[in-house]
Design a protein that fits this description.
Helix 1 packs parallel to helix 4, helix 4 (93-113) crosses helix 6 and helix 5 (115-123) packs across helix 6. This protein has helices at residues 21-35, 46-57, 63-69, 93-113, 115-123, 125-147, 153-158, 167-185, 192-204, and strands spanning 2-5, 38-41, 70-74, 77-80. By secondary structure, the chain is an alpha+beta fold. It has a 4-stranded mixed β-sheet with strand order 1-3-4-2.
């Protein structure tokens, strides 16, 4: 089970015409087709309702926060707390694009490691932090593409406290993202999900890309 928190620094700030609802929907279709995934409504899912109850009982995360503030991927299904293309509760249209890529990077991780990935994510805080650091690399890459800048990595790493990660896991993640930012700042795109996303974004919404140079 993987999760993504929508409230990232700078995600909601738009410098030019934002992506449109129909474009967000088409983008999801592209990502789902390429990585063989599907989406489901998180609130309507019995599996997610049970997970929310378990997390609350364990004292890890408030039930409603889990259901409303996080997207979660299990296997090849993305459980979303919003309808694709419809802004809701802080999930603006660009945030929906970013979370789509982030969650698909978790699918890439699943494909690379098989069943051991799911087990490690659920049982090891350090492994969970490592997987999330890799997925948050997508956020950095998309932020750079869209705005030509990079967000502060410390608040992103601090968000892992909501994933049951320890302070030392947060520190390692902050350090990892800081190192990754250097490469992203120089134009590197290392995440498979981001590369798949940029195929569509560069072709269909090139006006959203930050001016180069």
């Amino acid at each position: 089970m993987k999760g993504y928190l929508q409230s990232l620094p700078g995600v909601g700030t738009l410098f030019q015409r934002d992506i449109q609802p129909a474009e967000v929907w088409a983008f999801y279709q592209h990502m789902q087709s390429r990585l063989r995934t599907k989406t489901a409504n998180k609130t309507d899912s019995l599996e997610m309702q049970l997970a929310a109850e378990a997390l609350q009982r364990m004292g890890i995360l408030d039930r409603q926060r889990f259901l409303e503030k996080y997207a979660t991927t299990v296997g090849r299904t993305l459980y979303l707390p919003f309808e694709v293309g419809v802004p809701k509760g802080g999930w603006d249209l660009w945030a929906q694009v970013v979370v789509c890529v982030h969650e698909h990077q978790h699918v890439v991780q699943h494909d690379e490691e098989g069943p051991s990935y799911e087990l490690a994510y659920l049982t090891s805080a350090s492994a969970r932090a490592r997987y999330e650091a890799e997925a948050y690399t997508c956020n950095l890459e998309l932020h750079s593409w869209r705005y030509g800048t990079l967000p502060a990595v410390r608040p992103i790493a601090e968000g892992l406290k909501h994933y049951g990660c320890r302070p030392e896991d947060v520190e390692v993640t902050a350090h990892t993202l800081a190192l990754t930012s250097v490469s992203v700042r120089h134009g590197a795109v290392v995440s498979e999900a981001t590369n798949v996303a940029l195929e569509w974004l560069n072709s269909h919404v090139p006006h959203l890309r930050a001016k180069q140079g």
